[in-house]
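As a warm-up, study this chain.
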Amino acid sequence: MSGPSHIAVYAGSFDPPTLGHLDVIQRARRLFDEIVVGIGENPDKQHMLDPATRLTLMQQLVRDMLEADPDGAPVRVETYEGLTVDFARSINAVALLRGIRNVTDLASECQLAIANRQVANIETTFVITDERYGFTSSSLIRQIVDLGGDVDKLTDIVPQPVLDQLRAMRTA
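Now compare it with the structure written out below.
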């Protein structure tokens, strides 16, 4: 006898996707029946990768993850516009999934989680990422790329397909 499906939405811009993002997804696969990675548009951010590229990269990374470790919840990747809580409701999600890297994340994420619970009546589940990714962020990677840093030095925090994309951007 099966009960209701427990779907979590892991939303972000994923610009670019990092190994920290994948770590959060992999850990959450043990907690929920399904994970939906929602790639949203944040109007306050200037994006390095266009939405189609972020979608393609994340779909490839998730497919590779599921092939490497078929145990655990399925994961699908979608794009959405508007509020994350509206997207979560539209797919019957029971929780928003957020990765926590450090105490700075915790403070801001707790504030957002309380607001989401009060306004949209949706819970937030925090997953603490592996310590290797405690100070990794997409904005840091964007800054390194924008300022001409060596993308080959990012192999410990960025998946290979993303590195390939960053290299291709350099030669374009």
